[in-house]
Amino acid sequence: MQKEIELLAPAGTWEALEAAVNAGADAVYLGGKAFGARAYASNFDREEMTRAVYFCHMHHVRLYVTVNTLVDDKELPELEEYLVFLHNAGIDGIIVQDLGVIRAAQRIVPDLPLHASTQMTVTNSAGVRFAAEHGMVRVVPARELSLADLKKVSDTGLEIEAFIHGALCVCYSGQCLMSSLIGGRSGNRGRCAQPCRLPYTLVDKDGKDLLAGKDAGQYLLSPKDLNTLKVLPQMIEAGVLSYKIEGRMKRPEYVAVVVDAYRRAMDSYKRGSYEVPEKDLANIEQIFNRDFTTAYLEKHQGRLMMSDRRPNNRGVLIGRVQKLNKDHTKAVIKLDKTIHAGDGLEFWVKVGGRVGTVVDTLRVNGAVVASAEAGSLAEIDIPKGVRLNDRVFRTMDSELMAYAGQFYGEKNKKRIPVMVKVTAHMGSPMEVVLTDCDGNSGAGLTDFVAEPARKHALDEGAVRKQVDRLGATEYVLAALETELDDGLMVPMSEINEARRKACEALDAARLEAFAPARRPVACSQMMSRWLRELEYSDAGSAVAGPEGNEKAGRAFQRKEGQHFGEEKDMPQLTVWTDTPEKVKAALDGGADWIIFGGDRYSSKDVTFADYETAVKLAHDKGRKIAFSTPRIVKESQQAFFAAFLKQAAACQIDLLYVHNLGIWQLARELKIGTPLWADMSLNIYNSQSLQFWKEAGATGATLSVELNMGQLAHLAKVSPLPLECLVQGPIEMMVSEYCAGGSFLGNLDKGACTFKCKEEIYLHDRKEANFRLAGDQFCRMHVLNSQDLSVLGGLQELRDMGISRLRIDGRTYDPQQIRDLVKRFKETLALSGEAVENLPGTTRGHYYRGVL
Which one is predicted more confidently, 549 or 695? Predict the structure, then answer.
């Protein structure tokens, strides 16, 4: 049976948490001081989080915590202790990206519900089934899903949580390395610097500005904000369970206004007459917007999805400058909307962009007024730079902020009404009973036995004064019933103590009724023991980890490598290609393994005959070949790839590289029999993740390109699987359903694309770097780093630490370049200690620096 739909609100501060609960959220998600994807939010320490659980559960609101970053092995002991804390604190679930964290959590706190973060890049119903099979109770799928896709993933029966409002990532979440590679601040580690909100110029290979003179801004990677109020009924009918508002970095007023509006909208749907008042639409727009979009829910919108002229809050247009005084210190504005004294205004000036002011004094017809109505001429003081006909936007509405402020703060505390019954009979303790509207009750008795009054007998007024003192609780007195014998007395302090006991008892009853307490678990240092056993075990023998799973050191890894024909102590060179001509060149250069297919940096796809040719070329040379698969597979593509997997198996390929969880699930369900290799898009960052993939049936794994040499050496020593690293080629910084070329050069918003990737295009940034935008066979955009990765100088180090395979990504190279690169890398691998320079014009990526 479908559970009750849930409005899920963000909270980055205690005030935002109060605003979310008081405005009507059914659930709240927040982050702690570590392991959360919004490291720059204020977040909650453990004392605050314990208090937050109590506060939310008392108001029958669920509380979820983000543990959605990639975790380094050195952090695993801290992670264990944190998970134990979250479990014992009563958190309702954790939102997780790292499959290693999921594996650890299932062993440390098996009763703590796990939600798959959107950072896990679940793009189809097979991916949802993968999550379900691996113990997750809820999935937050990629924001790129359509309404029809949401229906399909909801039909799996797993809980689906979907974003309904707030900022959008232009890249598929979990696949973005742009912040990481440009500044070392990894989005996968919670420290995204938002390079998508920076200005770029769209240029060709010669540096020509392709948008010069055209109606386009510079913020070519900056999406508008998501707003689903017009499609919310369709989302509900699709079967989505949880409706998520983005905004843990936002102010409490933002949380209050957005939750308030969506609460009303959802309640109207439940009543059978969906409506959104114009006031709510206006409030949502005013509190923060980059303009609004429904993203991919209805269709691909091209440039209409992008806020290319402004990457931050644009406010609401309220009028234009109609008149200026002589020294340009005052302006008369013809108002399209009502404004108030205290509002924040911004003028979109012709020179210099934008200038802002706060309305201190507001005049209409020469008289100072508190507000000026739409249609009137209002005079205000202005900053320098304002000219006639400049547009005026309100970025802060003082009245709306005052309204939003009513949802948080001690003076605005939302309290739970209780009926109080006080009974006192001569010779017996007084009893105070509190009962809430759900029928939960709590009682408290005085230690004192009621006795005859010496002076003033106890009456209802005296009792009311004491039991109404509920300020330190979540309760408010709604009704009082007393049953008092005549002429008795009970000390006020005793009544207060009985009231306190009754409150505590009612707290316990409400909390148990809403979220029954779990049995506490102790921190057993499982992860510390895990790491010690991995690090200090004999590298030549298998060892048992804390859960009894077989582990192996470097020698085991080499043994696994030999199973695939690898020479002892010598890593094999794999070359990723996308045409038969490149396959031949790689083999001529001495490649040990060929990877063929997957995402192509070209709009022209290869045929399956090309795949068959690649297999024949490799096998005729006595080499091994693997087929690759795309990192993104949409719901509508699953049937195609199910057929592809069967064809691939029939070709007798040696291995299948998998980037997408749905493809992994399909391959397992179809029982294709081909060994599977977990590829780099799966963000494999720690030993727990490697163990997860081993248990899932992986033959090997390609590690995250965000790891440094020290981390790689550690994982090479302890991995239960053969490992591969990328050592040469372009690093993909983003993959996106949005295409800048198609949107701004190909008129995608008007229908079919007319650009069709007819030439190479680049984003040119403020530091003169050019990032190639490569369209693939599915019309997705891949943003490539401005410099290719090359670790030629570190090749021997990787060899000596025990990495089994070293990959050259040859998809952007021509056959001759591939042939030369493979030969040079093979020669370098055979060296013993000689210093080798890196290739010119390349980057070593994170190998020698790592990420924050």
Answer: 695
